[in-house]
Amino acid sequence: MDRRDFIKTMGVVGASVLPARSLRAEEIEDKSVEFNGILVDTTRCVGCQNCSVVCAESHDLPEPDLDKMFEITGNRPTTPEQWTTISRFEVDGEEIYVKKQCMHCNQPACATACPTKALLKTEEGPVIWRGDKCMGCRFCMISCPFDIPKFEYDSANPRIMKCVMCWEKIKEGEQPECVANCPEEAIIFGTRRELIDEAKSRIYSEPDRYVHEIYGELEVGGTGYLYLAGVPFDQLGFKEDLENEAYPQYTKTFLYSVPFVITLWPAFLLALHNATKRDETDREGGM
Amino acid sequence: MEVIMKEKPIIVQEGKRFIKFILSELKPKGKLLTPFNIFAAIVIGVGVILIAIRFIYGLSSVTNLSQEFPWGIWIGFDVITGVAFAGGAYVLTFMVYILRLEKYHPIIRITVLNGFLAYVFYAGALLLDLGRPWHVINPIIGNSFGVSSVMFLVAWHFMLYMMAEFVEFSPAVAEWLGWRKIRKILAGMTLGAVIFGITLSTLHQSGLGALFLMTKGKLHPLWYSEFMPILFFISSIFAGLSMVILEGSISHKLFAKRMSNEIKRSHNDIVMGLSKICAGALFVYFFLKVLVFIHENSWVHLNTPWGYWFLLEIVGFVIIPLRLYMLGSRNKNFTLIKVAAVLALVGIVLNRLNTSVIAYNWQNFGAYVPTWMEIEITLTVILVEIIVLRWIVYRMPILTESPAWALPEKMRDRVQKIFLVKEKAKEEEKEQWKVSTM
After folding, report:
1. Where in the sequence is the domain holding B63, given as residue range(s)?
2. Where are the alpha helices (DSSP H) in B354-399?
């Protein structure tokens, strides 16, 4: 290996390590951060859809069509125009209403997937979207286990539309609109820890009223939205096949291997190049 | 004073000569109204209008993309399949510059050029798909590094690899323009670019597989596996080389007049060698697929419609091309090899589309079928690429020999060489001023 080759390779390696050093799976290690969340008690919800109405008002969305809820039973996905929906289920002749929106995961797949940090897990707990960063690649939609981010395909300046848990209000110390306007107190706002305590005490005090599970406590590493229900969650359109592992874990191994490849591969290739040299008079040339 | 007065007109003269040269090269060299050109003009014309509509009215005006299927053929075919097809460049540069397999040297330029253009156009097609393409520089200028994102890594690597491939290819541009000194500098950068390029390719070919690691539960378990990055990387080897074999036989017909005797002579030998490598890579790929299948315990899925579809991909487009490559290289049957190449490429299209579009969100009732407009725009991208490729091949020394001044002189005896090189360097220095514009 002559000196020029060496310097060149060091330059190449150095340049490539520069972006690679920061390429690591991002996880929230700091356990002192207390995320806020929302607890939904589906046994209390009466399906008035007031949450959908106030949500639309406060986020400049078109007025939701409230009759749609009665047209179908089963999951009603959110849309770019409606960030929170009420799904109607019939289990054993009983009608159950379930609020569906972004789950605000502790370690969200969407924010991990986002190449520009347009989707961001804030310290307060909400997962927000920032239009000045997003390039519209829709990798968040591909990655989200709950299929929540929605895209404005009809627009020349499309946005990713989803519940942001009224982040601006939470920062001011207020409650999200849907919580503040729920007439049945079916949804309550608080830190995740408080909400889990509350949910558990409800289960303990009325063990026959609830299934003994808090959906969102463990799923995908924990979510900001937590659910209580009187019937098994898979009958209410919840995904029960999700694992407890947080989604950033799935790409962690790959991303950790990147710095190794990017530092070891060039050295190995250069060594191979020199090892295969026939004799000294061989000249290196271009193509 | 006199010296300056004399030199100035030469520079001006050379500048004029350069502009004249470029202008004359811009003119088409063959007949304009060929059936291909007319077809291309129509397709591209319609494509440009559709692209304008897409940017004015949004993606829904030309595509069938939906909330359930956010990625269609523009990503699944143009980008993800296109990049696998362009893998031949990094495999061949590895063989020629790292392993010094001189046998493959004659086709290195056309392969790198093909790879470079594929990246420019197919990765460029990404811009059509991006909802907010004016923010595409965000992950690069550093105001918002999504460092935990595989997409961020892939985006950076696309960009850096395009630069590396351009450096690898640039001596041909310098030879075309007659820039001797610059060619020397560029040729000196080749090895660095090759090593950098192979490293980047290893990471972004596998990175395309890693994009889908977070689709656990959404991508059908027959395709989802934690080994997707490795499978994508291995398959890019035979995908790239199969493309080299196919393109070789096509350019043999199309560019026969522009082809050096060396390429013509070595062609069969090269195809034979590549088909053996393809067979090897296909075998490794198949073996890994079987391992993953057993590891993930996927037997339950096999006797379902998805299982049959999976078997079609594995048997029809992995095992059969593997067998054909083996038979073809054993019996020196070039028809078999070409058929194997086509089947292997179809298999890659199937695998990449299955992963990104078809078996994605498989539990969802809806399905995505591309509109004719999405296909039309894809065709536009391909045709523009072919036209640019043709323009370059007819002008630069890609398939032809480099000009005499650019060839390495190996054969001279040492003493004479040192003497001659010194003498020649002086001469060249003088000549430089006359010939070069730089």
Report:
1. 37-407
2. 372-393
